[in-house]
């Protein structure tokens, strides 16, 4: 392949590292050897069990980092980064292997002191969330009550108006009986 020997292809990225490891995302960063015009990057991300492969390609950027999203929790991944130059792409970097975290509330038992602190923090957050939910539900119920009340009032006013109008416009039509039960109820109030 003649393009492999092209003198203007940039060198491969170096120091490829994975940081900010979470259950469903990770950050990849790398360095580019000096002196070459690099206009973008390409990342090949692959599950080690071969189930999923993703190719991320960004041009017109000088970024030296990229967030990998939508990862499966507790899974092994391999990534390789290429630099994109004006005349082609570099060889792929060394393969970097990483594993996403498990998404669980239980923290590893070996970090007992830190674990306690973070667990307390988690519990506090959880209480806050339930508190917030209760407030939201209460507000929604209040609004529902206000709207229901308004509708009831509005219906009564509307009924009064329509009764009055009907009595004014056509006092004895064939369809309406002169003694209307609903009118009687309203008058008796």
Can you give a write-up of this model?
With 189 residues, the chain is an alpha+beta fold. Helix content is 35%, strand content 26%. It has 2 helices and 8 strands; from the N terminus they run ββββββββαα. The chain has helices at 112-169, 181-188; strands at 14-19, 26-31, 38-47, 53-59, 65-68, 76-85, 88-89, 96-99. It is elongated. The chain starts with 13 loop residues before the first strand and ends with a helix. This is FNDC4 protein.
Beta-strand fraction estimate: 25-35%
Based on DSSP secondary structure assignment, what is the total number of beta strands?
Answer: 8
Query: How would you characterize the largest beta sheet?
Result: 5 strands, antiparallel
- What is the overall pLDDT average? 79
Please tell me how large the radius of gyration is. 35 Å
Main structural class: alpha+beta
Approximate helicity band: 25-40%
For the record, the CATH architecture of the domain at 14-102 stands as Sandwich
Uncertain spans, ≥5 residues at pLDDT below 50? 111-118
Distance between the termini: 97 Å
Shape: elongated
| CATH homologous superfamily designation of the domain at 14-102 | Immunoglobulins
CATH topology of the domain at 14-102: Immunoglobulin-like
CATH top level of the domain at 14-102 is: Mainly Beta
Topology as a string of helices (H) and strands (E): EEEEEEEEHH
How many helical elements?
Answer: 2
């Amino acid at each position: 392949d003649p393009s492999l020997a092209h003198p203007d292809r940039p060198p491969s990225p170096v120091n490829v590292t994975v940081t900010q490891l979470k259950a469903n995302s990770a950050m990849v960063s790398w360095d580019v050897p000096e002196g070459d015009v690099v206009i973008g990057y390409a990342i090949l991300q692959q599950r080690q069990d071969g189930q999923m492969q993703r190719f991320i390609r960004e041009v017109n950027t000088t970024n030296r980092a990229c967030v990998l999203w939508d990862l499966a929790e507790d899974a092994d991944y391999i990534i390789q980064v290429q630099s994109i130059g004006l005349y082609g792409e570099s060889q792929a970097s060394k393969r970097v292997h990483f594993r996403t975290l498990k998404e669980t509330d239980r923290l590893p038992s070996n970090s007992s002191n830190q674990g306690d602190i973070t667990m307390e923090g988690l519990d506090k957050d959880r209480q806050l969330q339930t508190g917030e939910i209760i407030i939201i539900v209460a507000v929604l119920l209040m609004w529902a009550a206000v709207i229901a009340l308004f509708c009831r009032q509005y219906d009564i006013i509307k009924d009064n108006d329509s009764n009055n109008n009907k009595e004014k416009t056509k006092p004895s039509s064939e369809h309406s009986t002169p003694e209307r039960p609903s009118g009687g109820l309203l008058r008796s109030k």
